[in-house]
Structure formats: structure tokens, C-alpha cells
Amino acid sequence: MASSADLPAICTAFGDLLHQAGVPVTPERSARFTTSVVLAEPTSLHELYWLGRVTLTTAHDQYETYDRVFRQVFRGLVDIADIRGDAAESDEGGSPAPALPGEAPAPDTGDGGGGPEGRQGSGATPGAIDSDADADHASALAAVSARERVNDKEFSTLTDEELRLIQRLVEQLPFVPPLRRGRRTRRHRKAGDIDIRATLRRAHRSAGDPVQMVHRKRTTNPRRIILIADVSGSMEPYARIYLHLLRGAVRAIKAEAFVFATHLTRLTRQLSTNHTDVAYRQAAAAANDWSGGTRIGVALRSFVEDFGRRGMARGAVIVIVSDGWESDRPELLAETMERLSRLAHHIIWVNPRKAAESFEPLTGGMAAALPYVDTFLSGHSLRALQDVMDAISEAGDRVERSTRARARLAS
Asked: What pLDDT score was predicted for residue 368?
């Protein structure tokens, strides 16, 4: 099996291949499968098979396709019939033993089958006769191999072919927003506080004796995710990649998307369009300062005044993607970040330049913003983007965030 570090990437590619094969795997289901693999840490393909089948399939007629793709992706290292617990076919009827993956089928020595026409099987079993098996197998392995090839490649060094591959992979990254406690409560069998009124009403059924307690538990809701990406000239090697990330977040979890160079532009409506080319064409038309100068403080101040104070940023997880090269006064950015930190639940700053060994946050903009940042990441490659996904889903609570900010200010 692949190492635990490779499994999330392979699982995501596996969900994409299932979708291409006709199984309606959504990004949410793919994220659920990836999360289950990380949490369960399967030690055998048997365990991995069942984790995928219960999280990625929704109907019995999808099992055959699932089995076939599972065998292709995981290199035939597992007998699907054994995993499912199917009874072994008897040799007394003349049926040959199924061929092992990668081996030629055993010759038919029985009287009932004759040649290949007499053998029974499906594309989901090792003994299947499938004229497209080799082509599908090669295609599946090529997709997984291609992902591994670009996983650690710096975005600014990608070729055009690799950029096209990255576009699809980035849009399908699993977004899992953190949860917050809601104001409402709902009835629960055991957990939560006792609902006195409901308990007393139910006690009328037992002559006033409260035999069964009724509990109510606070609901949980996903936090709003807001992504603000720098598309100025200094971020040009990364802007295209992060536009794909913004679109994936908008479509997967209804996130809010903004870009900026000299001014702020909201792209949520444009990127929510189903057609990919139309979405990017509309986004390019809306952001007319693409590859221009950098005014981070002005852009973030526009966000706070036009959107943040009206409620969008309150309790939200805000992801800012920028290299911190500010052309205005750093004091304006520091003031705006302080205001934003009082509104937001958690601020994540993604700076692709951070990946360089010699990097130090010495530029005026980055140095001014960092005291109000909760999580500082590079996000310079596909694997580094997974760290961004993890940071979003694991955003800390407000008390921890304030403590860290005060510590940075003190230092």
C-alpha cells in the first residue's frame, strides 16, 4: 500500500476517476473518503476498499464500477471477490480458476466452457474478460502518477500541460469548513441540557412522574469562508492557480471570493457559474486591474468597510493570499488588519514566497500584517495547498487566536 502521506492524494484522484467512470462522486463525498482514510489509517487494502465503498457509493448498481476502478487504481493487489466475501467457484463444474491480476488466464481444462467464451466474470473481478481493462488500467495509473509528479512542484515552474492538470486537481481539493455553535437547540436523546418544559409535558403520560428526561443540544453550523487573493504583477505566477482554488471553494462550500491588485473586486457570482470557461472569462472581465500594482491596505480596507462590517466577516475564517509587497504605507495595512482581526474568527495568510529557505517577513506589508495573522503558510505547491485546506478545517477558537496575536505583538 501507499504510505500514509500519499493516501489523501491518491484517494482524491480515486474519487475523480470514479466520477469519470459514471459513479456520481461529489467533492463532498471525496472529502469524506479522504478524511475517513486519514482518521482510520487502514493497514490493508481490505480496509481501504470498505472505507471507499461506504463513503463513495450510493446505490447497488454502482458496486461493479467501483470494484473495477478500485482494482485499476490500486494495481490489482486485491481480489475484489475475496474482499466482498463472495463464495469461491467450484472447480467441479469445469470453470477455470480466475487469473491473478497481471497474469494470463489459466487455460480452460473443463468440458463445459471451452475457450474464453465459456468463462464467466465481470469487469469487477480478477477473472473478468474486459477488452478495455488494459487501457483503463493504464489511464488510472497515469492519472495517479501525474498527480504525484506535480504534487511538490512549485507553481511558478509548471508547464502549460501541468497547469491544465493542476486546474482540475485544485478545483477538487476537499474543503471542510470548521463548525461553530449555533444559537438554536434541537432535541437530543441523551446529550445536552434538560428541557424542563418538554420533560414536564411528557410526565403527564406517567401520572406526573418524570420517567424520561428530554434533552436539548446546541446545533452546529459551518463557518463562512472568505478568500481574498492578490492578482497583482508580483503574484502573476500564482494568481491563475489560486483563481481555480477560489472557484472550487465557491462551488463546494459557497465561500465568498475576492481578488485585488489596486482595488478590490468581488468574484463570487462570476465563479459560481457552472461552465468553467464562462466563469473565468467573466472573472477576468470583472477584475480589470489584473497584473497591476499592489495596494493591499486599500483593498482590505474596502473589504472591511463595504462587506466586513455589514456582517460578512463576523465570525468567518478569512484566507488572504498575497506576497505582502505593499506599495502604500504599511501603517494603513496594519490598521486595517487590526480591524479585520476583531471581526474575523481566524485569519490565514498564504504567501508563496515563504517556501524559499532565505525568506524572512521583512517587507513592509508582510511585517505590518503578520501580528494579526493566526496561521501563516506558503501554499506554493499542490501539497502545500493541502496544508491550507487543513488550516481552514482546523481553525482555532477565538481565545487561542487572541493569545497568539498578543504574543507576536509583544515580540
From this structure: 93
DSSP 194: E
Can you list the alpha helix ranges (DSSP code H) found in 181-260? 196-203, 236-253
User: 84-88, 183-187, 245-249, 275-279: which has the minimum mean pLDDT?
Assistant: 84-88
Q: Which residues contact 181 (CB under 8 A, 6 or more apart)?
A: 218, 219, 220
pLDDT at residue number 144 = 53
Quote the longest CA-to-CA distance of the chain: 88
Assigned CATH topology for domain 225-410 = Rossmann fold (3.40.50)
Q: What span, in angstroms and rounded, lies between the C-alpha atoms of 330 and 326?
A: 7
Q: Grid coordinates 461552465 are at which residue? A: 275
Neighbour tally for 392: CB within 10 Å? 23
Identify the residue with better confidence: 172 or 393.
393
Model-level pTM greater than 0.90? no
Least confident of 25-39, 229-243, 303-317: 25-39
Residue 359 has pLDDT above 80, yes or no: yes
Beta bridge partners of 180: 221
403 SS3 class: helix
How far is 231 from 239, CA to CA, in rounded Å? 5
**How is 159-173 classified by DSSP, letter by letter?**
-HHHHHHHHHHHHTS
Residue limits of CATH 3.40.50.410 in the chain: 225-410
Q: Are 162 and 210 in contact (CB under 8 A)?
A: no
As a whole number of angstroms, the distance between CA 267 and CA 294 comes to: 18
Q: Helix, strand, or coil here: 156?
A: helix
C-alpha triplet 141, 144, 150: angle, nearest 5°: 135
